[in-house]
Amino acid sequence: MSILNYCAKLNEQNEMFPSVFDYAQEHKVPIIDADSLNVLKHQLRLMNRKRILEIGTAIGYSGLHMLSVADDIHLTTIEKDKTLHDIAVENFKTHGALSRVNAICMDAKEIDPDALGHFDMLFIDASKANNQFFFEKFEPLLDESGIIIVDNILARGLVIEDEITNKNLNKMVKKVDAFNQFVATSEFHASFLPVGDGLLIISR
Q1: Which stretch of DSSP H or E encloses residue 149?
Q2: Do you know which SUPFAM superfamilies this protein is assigned to (predicted)?
Q3: N or C end of the chain, less CB within 10 A?
């Protein structure tokens, strides 16, 4: 067992939403890894985040977990896939969280950010090639003490591979790495965490 697997095992929690988790596994819907989810929720508790903007709803798995941290958390979440959006809305409804969710079915690249309001946390978990675009578009909506969390910054380990034969995959990985390097050399405070598929926490 590697050190990373050892820590991942310790980070495992009892699944709060087994039906949503099982659906994701059965239908191959990408969801946040368990140990990354644990860090994400821990950050919410530590920093008392209440107004979250999520880019990439999928079926609402991470959204449900974030809302479970406290009853006064409100989530605005954006998903461009209508089928996934509808499933997420049903999941929020089933688990009694829909009243605290503004679920938007739209391409996040096209939405007017000024219509969304202000937030104290931004969670980016959508198209990995667009991490920098989403960061630059939605970061201005954060309060001064707001934080940004980005999932999948390791691209399943491909960010350190020198030769990727698939051109589209290679292009995506290069964009993921370029965003990581941008953040690392920016004036933002950042922590790159080797949990799950890599989690990035950014603050001003």
Answers
A1: strand 142-151
A2: S-adenosyl-L-methionine-dependent methyltransferases
A3: N
Domain 3-203 has CATH 3.10.100.10: no
Query: Of 144, 134, 89, 92, which Cα lies nearest the Cα of 113?
Result: 134
- Residue type, position 152, single letter: N
User: What are the b/e assignments for 32-52, b being 16+ CB within 10 Å?
Assistant: bbbbbbbbbbebbeeeebebb
For residue 12, the tally of other CB atoms under 10 A from its CB is 11
Query: How is the chain split into domains, by residue range?
Result: 3-203
The amino acid that residue 71 corresponds to is D
User: What is the pTM (predicted TM-score) of this model?
Assistant: 0.94
What is the spatial distance between Cα 69 and Cα 63, in angstroms, rounded to a whole number? 10
Tokens, residue 203 = 């603050």
